[in-house]
Amino acid sequence: DVKVTQSSRYLVKRTGEKVFLECVQDMDHENMFWYRQDPGLGLRLIYFSYDVKMKEKGDIPEGYSVSREKKERFSLILESASTNQTSMYLCASSLGTGTGELFFGEGSRLTVL
Amino acid sequence: SQKIEQNSEALNIQEGKTATLTCNYTNYSPAYLQWYRQDPGRGPVFLLLIRENEKEKRKERLKVTFDTTLKQSLFHITASQPADSATYLCALAFNQAGTALIFGKGTTLSVSS
Question: pLDDT tens-digit profile of A43-63?
Answer without folding.
Answer: 999 999 999 989 999 999 999
